[in-house]
Amino acid sequence: MTYFLLFFTIHDVLRAEKALKGHHVDMELVPVPRNLSSDCGMCIKLRGDLDGVKPYINGIEMDKCVSYDGKEYRTIGGR
Amino acid sequence: MIYLDNAATSFPKPKETIDLLNEFVLNIGGNPGRSGHTLSLDAARFIFEARERLAALIHAGDSERIIFTQNGTESLNLAILGFLKENDHVITTSFEHNSVMRPLTFLAKEKRVSVSVAQCAHNGKLDVKDIKKLIRKDTKAVVVNHGSNVIGAVQPVGEIKKTIGEIPIIVDACQTAGSFPVNVAEDNIDILCCSCHKGLYGIQGLGAIYIRNGVDLTPLKFGGTGSRSESIEQPLFLPDKYESGTPNTPGIAALLGGLRFIERTGIEAIIRRKQDLRQSIVSSLSDIPGILLYGDNDDRKQLPVISFNIKGKLPSEVGYELNKREIYTRVGLHCAPVAHRTIGTFPEGTVRVAPGYFTTEEEIAIFIQAVREITKIS
Ligand SMILES: Cc1ncc(COP(=O)(O)O)c(C=O)c1O
Predict the structure, then answer these.
(1) Which residues are near ligand 1 (CB < 6 Å)?
(2) CATH C-level class of B15-265
C-alpha cells in the first residue's frame, strides 16, 4: 500500500520528513496529487507500514492521510 | 577602516553568512513552498533549517512559533499592533527604541490605548517594582527592551515576567539575540522580537518574532502562503498565518549561515568576547580626561554598546573626527529619544561605540588613541 501524508504547511512537511528520515523510513516528498487537494505544495509519500511510522510524527498535525492501492485513493485519517 | 557600529548592523559578516547567501542566489533561487519542483523545495529547506536553529538558540521549543519578518521593527509592529486592542492599557519603559514608542504612540492616538512608562534610572537600571506599581485591571501587556541600543544595559526580563504573572510580556531582543543569553522558555516570554542582521549575523532586511503557543495576534499582512490555496481566507496555522508573500529567502539563507557560525563558535564564547570588548573600551575610555561615560560601567553583564561624550564637544563633531580617521561609530539619538532623555543626553545624544565579535584589540587601541587626540582638539 502507498500512503500520502498531507500537512498544513511546508514547514510541517519538512518537520515530518526530518523525523521520518531520522528513523530511516523510506519516503519521498512529492507534489500533492491534484485530486487530493488544491494546495500547490508538497506532501510525503511512503510505502508499507504506516502504523509503524506514525509514532515518529505524532506531534505534527496532519491535514489528511490517504491510502492508494494502485486503483483507488481513500482518506483514512487527518483532521 | 575600523567598524564600530555593530549595534546598527553587524559588519563584517562571518564567512558562513556569505557562503550561504551565495549558495542560495547562485544555485537555488526558487520561491519556497510555492511550487512542487526541486528548487522551490530546496528554498523551503533553507527556511526550515534557519527556523529550527533560531528556535534552538532562543529555546523556543517548536520552531513553527518562529516567524520571519522584514526587520526588528516589523516584529515589534506585529507584536504591538497585532496584540493590543482599543482602550487597552499597556506598560513600557523609559529605555525603548522608537520601534516600540512609535507604534504605542500611534495606538494611544488612534485606538485610545493608554500607555504607562516605567522610569529607568539614568544608568539604565529598571526597578521591577516600578512596573508592578503601574499594573491596572485592564493592563494587557508589558513591552520591555531586553538590551539597550544606547548604553548596552540589559533588563531582567525573567524577573519582570515573574512579577507581572499572567500579563503577557513583549520583549524587544533586537540587540540581545546572539549577543546575550536569550531563553524564552526559562524566562517565560510570551512574544520576543529580534533583528536578524545584528548579533545573529544575517544580512539586512530580516527580522524574526517568537510567539508563544496560545498567544494570538492579528497579522499585519494577508496574502499568499502556498498553503490552503483554495481558500480566500488567511490560514490560521503557523508559521503561514503571519508569513504572507514571498519571503526574503536570500536573507534567511544568510541568517542560516550566521546561525551556523554562532553554533560553530559557541554562543558562550561570543558573549564572553563581546563582554570583554565592552570592558576593554569602558576602562580605556574612563582613563581619558574629559570623557563622559554613560551607563553602569561596573556591571560586566551588558552588551558591547557604549555611549560617551567629550566635554565641550558635540557628539556630531566627535563622530566627524572619528570618521575622518576611518573609524565608524554612530552619533546622535540612535532612534531612542526616550532612552536619551533617561540618561540625560537629549537632544544632542552621544557617540555610540559598538564593537563586534570580529573587532580586535589593535582596532580598539587605535580608536582609543583617536579619542585621546580628539579631546585635545580645541
Ligand atoms: C533596541 C532596538 N529595537 C529595535 C530595533 C529595530 O530593529 P531593525 O533595525 O531590525 O528594524 C533596533 C535596531 O535598530 C534596536 O536596537
Answers:
(1) B 71-73, 97, 99, 145, 149, 172, 174-175, 195, 207, 335
(2) alpha beta
Distance from CA of B81 to the nearest CA of A (A): 25
Tell me how crowded residue B84 is: count the other CB atoms within 10 A of its CB.
Answer: 23
Q: Which pLDDT tens digit goes with each residue over B304-336? A: 999 999 999 999 999 999 999 999 999 999 999
By three-state DSSP, how is residue A5 classified? strand
Neighbouring C-alpha atoms within 13 Å toward the C-beta of B234: 16
Cβ atoms B219, B28 nearer than 8 A: no
Low-confidence ranges of chain A (pLDDT < 70): 38, 40, 79
Domains in chain A (CATH in brackets) are 2-78 (3.30.70)
Residues present in chain A in total: 79
Whether B238 has a pLDDT exceeding 80, the answer reads yes
> Boundaries of CATH 3.90.1150.10 in chain B?
2-11+266-375
Fold designation for B2-11+266-375: Aspartate Aminotransferase, domain 1 (3.90.1150)
pLDDT digit string, tens, across residues B87-103: 999 999 999 999 999 99
